[in-house]
Amino acid sequence: MKIAFLTSEAVPFAKTGGLADVAGALPKALELLGCEVKLFIPKYYLIDEEEFNLHYNWEIGEIPIKISKHTRSVHVYQSLLPGSNVEVNFIDCPHYYHRDQIYTDGFDEDERFILFNRGVIETLQRMKWAPDIIHCNDWPTGLAPLYLKENYAWDKLFQSTASLFTIHNIGYQGRFSKDSIKHASIREDLFYPGSPVEYHGDFSFMKTGIMFSDIINTVSETYAKEILTPEFGAGMENSLDKRKDDLYGILNGVDYSEWNPLTDKFIPYHYSSDDLKNKIKIKQELLKKFKIEFDEKIPLIGIVSRMVSQKGFDLVEEAANDLMKLNAQWIILGSGEDRYEEMFRNLQQTYPDKVAVYIGFNNELSHLVEAGADIFLMPSLYEPCGLNQIYSLKYGTVPVVRKTGGLADTVIDRKIHNSGTGFTFTDYSAKALIDAVKKTIDAYAERESWQKIQVNGMAENFSWENSAKKYIDLYKLAAQKKQNSKA
Ligand code: ADP
Ligand code: GLC
What we know:
By secondary structure, this protein is α/β, with parallel strands linked by helices. The protein has 2 domains: 2-253 and 465-486, Glycogen Phosphorylase B (Rossmann fold); 277-461, Glycogen Phosphorylase B (Rossmann fold, 3-Layer(aba) Sandwich), CATH 3.40.50.2000. 38% of the residues lie in helices and 19% in strands. Strand 15, helix 12 (338-350) and strand 16 (355-359) form a beta-alpha-beta unit. Helix 1 (18-32) crosses helix 18 (464-486), helix 10 packs across helix 13 (363-372) and helix 11 (313-325) packs across helix 16. It is globular, with a radius of gyration of 23 Å. The two termini are 21 Å apart. Alpha-D-glucopyranose binds at residues 17-19, 22, 168-169, 219, 252, 383-387, 406. Alpha-D-glucopyranose binds next to helix 1.
């Protein structure tokens, strides 16, 4: 099967969160299963051409694309996804992508991703490469399914091309004013109250992806059910309900070539479940780095996260005083909204001997925290899949998570099964969070049973192979739907 994989971020080129991990790993797993995959990503300024060996594609040359009133010059650079033969196509348009960030809140954010969606399709035309599937990911790629069915429907090249739209996070919807329809060269009569592209008087890229793709999926089975409800649907539940027969859940996998305590290139010592001594050495180094005293009786709780309300930091704020009374140390890595950054900075100032905070994005440190912490906390308000709890399992770092979305699908609470892999709580309340952390700290004191939990988690396997097979099944389903619609 031939797959065009569209994403706004991918490891190792550009990353803000888990979408990048998925986009850097799933295409490789698909290739191993026999698919031919081409990855498409904007050529952001921050991507290092030399480091990743990017080459300008002269055959494709210049692609003029009209956005709003201006015609922009688009070019394509190519490279390979490290560790594979997956061709990566970087859609270049300095006007839009030479900015400091992957996502901006600039007035032309819509145009940046309109250009990307159209740029990909026009690149496919110039390559004369007809994918069986255009696999779109989240709102930045939500227009491609519409373009295939509308603006580019004339092109026979795409007569058998179906689309899959993967929702990684329904909380980010790419909502722009009605004018954006014009910028995107979409038929204006497609926009009316309740239309497949309209959301509360605005143009929604997310809704467009949902309504125009052949098949939709999200990144865990539980989240696939949750987003059909008003509590989790973030306003998209009615649109999703219309498409619920085409909505699936596939749990994300993990790239164990990146995230494995036996081979991780970012950690100073390696270990496996046979011998966890080196894990303690890493904890010692990590604590030393942050000038916190090591005491083997005190558990170290790690957090690595975007600092946004999705991740449950309102609960942490409410619970902070009680959490600080517990006998634990904390290392927190993240960046995001000012109010959460501020809260964690204050905690560090008030409790310098037990709390260390690093505000920023630091890949190496994220690996160190995964390896060096004893406990990993993810009290998310909602969590489509979540990857850090899965990494934690592999690193023998026992996760404490709120039982929602992918967290519910990956962490087995110790109290329910003898063979638990972590601790979960259900209520979105400070009390439930404090109780769960307390229980985990108590369990840490019982060395033998603690080790059992660690080893159980380390034995779990969330490799991409299983999930990639499920994606191939969805691709086949989408292709079939496309076929039927032509008949
Ligand atoms: P989300 O995509 O909602 O942010 P995930 O758990 O799926 O959540 O993925 C988050 C990814 O981003 C993980 O790979 C995590 O290690 C990484 N990450 C988040 N914040 C940081 C940070 N401040 N520094 C380094 N890596 C981070
Ligand atoms: C999103 C979600 C996260 C998921 C990631 C990759 O950013 O918030 O839960 O793991 O996408 O699918």
